[in-house]
Write a structure and sequence with these properties.
The protein contains ten helices and no strands. With 236 residues, it is mainly alpha-helical.
Length: 236
């Protein structure tokens, strides 16, 4: 791997652990935490051994970084009953969790400097994800503390940030060294195939995606039920 300072590696490991902590606070599910931790260990070991760096395989090893966890998120989301999600998830933590997107973007910038991802994937390119991280505590304050913005504003924010997540995911996939690569041929996206950065597509991105989907589902479920919506906000 190209030279990346030890401090950045440690910083990213800490960011990943912080993401797990924030996600655990949303529902206090030890079963979910254990499942994610096991997956994190498996991916970490494979990343350390260089499994994801091997090219010219069918399917591309990059697929195993992103697809399994994303599929699990989607399947789990749609199979979970609405009332279970609404009762267990904590909208405050689901909102604050997105602040981790700031340190993630800082790490990505240094990985770009090391030549392991294209500038398209940083805030200097077409990755605007850092705006979600910066705005997360502001949204939290205006929605849950001052109550200047209601559930409609929170819903709009989640949709916008979900769109920005899809944007960077698309860029990352099209920049990776796979048969469908369309971008960044001079400096492709290979950084996320190295340990510990394998945790970005395999752990952090799915958690962020799930947090948006759950928040949107809660807010849409109660958009015409003010009593229920108020109960959910009061539980936060």
């Amino acid at each position: 791997m190209a030279e990346i300072s030890t401090s950045i590696v440690i910083f990213f490991i800490f960011t990943t652990i912080l993401t797990l902590f924030c996600f655990y606070q949303t529902n206090k599910s030890k079963k979910q935490l254990l499942s994610i931790s096991i997956w994190m260990v498996v991916v970490g070991i494979l990343g350390y051994l260089g499994f994801y760096q091997i090219q010219n395989t069918i399917p591309p090893r990059f697929v195993f970084l992103l697809v399994p966890s994303i599929l699990f998120v989607i399947i789990h989301f749609f199979l979970t009953r609405n009332n279970t999600i609404s009762n267990e998830q904590n909208l405050k933590w689901l909102t604050l969790l997105h602040t981790i997107r700031v340190p993630v973007e800082i790490v990505l910038y240094y990985v770009f400097i090391a030549g392991l991802i294209p500038d398209l994937m940083t805030f200097e390119g077409y990755n605007y994800d850092i705006l979600c991280g910066i705005s997360a505590p502001i949204i939290y304050y205006t929605v849950f503390v001052k109550k200047w913005i209601g559930k409609k504003g929170l819903l709009i924010w989640n949709f916008i940030c979900l769109g920005l997540l899809v944007n960077i995911l698309t860029i990352a996939i099209l920049s990776a060294q796979t048969p469908i690569q369309q971008l960044a041929f001079d400096q492709p996206n290979i950084g996320v195939t190295y340990f510990p950065f394998v945790w970005l597509p395999a752990v952090i991105v799915p958690i962020v995606l799930y947090s948006h989907l759950v928040s949107i589902k809660i807010l849409l479920e109660f958009r015409n039920n003010n009593t229920a919506a108020n109960n959910v906000f009061n539980q936060c």
